[in-house]
Design brief:
The structure is a single chain. This protein is an alpha/beta fold. The protein has one domain: 3-Layer(aba) Sandwich (Cytosolic phospholipase A2 catalytic domain). The chain has 8 helices and 11 strands. Strands 1, 2, 5, 6, 8, 9, 10 and 11 form an 8-stranded mixed sheet that branches. A 3-stranded mixed sheet has the order 3-4-7, with no helix packed on it. β1, α1 and β2 form a beta-alpha-beta unit. α1 crosses α7. The protein is globular and about 50 Å long. The two termini are 17 Å apart. The C terminus is likely disordered. Pfam families: Patatin (PF01734). One of its GO terms (molecular function) is hydrolase activity.
Length: 267
Amino acid sequence: MKSKLKIGIALSGGGVRGISHLGVLKALTESGIHPTKVSGTSAGAIVGAMFCQGYTPDDILKIIVKTNYFKFMRPAISLTGFLKMDSVGALFKLYLDHDDFAKLKIPLTVAATDIKKAKVRYYSEGELIRPIMASSCIPGMFDPIVIGKNYMVDGGVLNNLPVEPLEGICDYVIGVNCNQLPQETNISNMKKLIERSVIMAMNYNVYSRESKCDYFIEPPELAKYGVFDIKKASELFSVGYDFTMNYIENNPTILELAVDSNKSNKV
């Protein structure tokens, strides 16, 4: 039985913490809640693309664990970034070989920032891989991704929770933020200062969109993980899954979005 509801899910950026999105998606789908449209920024765009391609959250986790993402990057001889992302396209090509938004099983929109025009651009048709790369292109660390005549960087710079592509299309919107930030009593070095400042800026534009979400999922435990802590991939997955299962238990109305809502409400 298919739900007639159109359910959108917006996935934030957040570096390696974005792996927690996989746990969130697993908990939602196990509960019968299946998004009919996905939007994402940065890590959320990557997770969203793999999920919309048809890979299960567990499959995607296995791919992440076995793949050394950084071996696909090479130094950039440039004043605009330390690394080039072009070769990362080869990695995405292994799992998204059609390179076409239209061939995804679930419609996807990814957000990226036009660094010259200072505006957000949303990609949902045409080539798939370069917009994903652009959406996760951290400014200063990577050379911008050129799409057409536009120089694109990480979508989180201006929109780290892209709910706008879901508005007016979906009956319900679920926002998922993996960047919960606790109070800090000791900022001991420049790395922590910069990382915290970037996350604060991104969270500001996330929380400004929270009111547009019917449900907002934000696992606070993620705050203890670094945004590049890839060795904790399995833990991050579990944090997203466990928190979302508890969230569903404490917010039972979300089960009205399930494929078979009558059955789900009896659980």
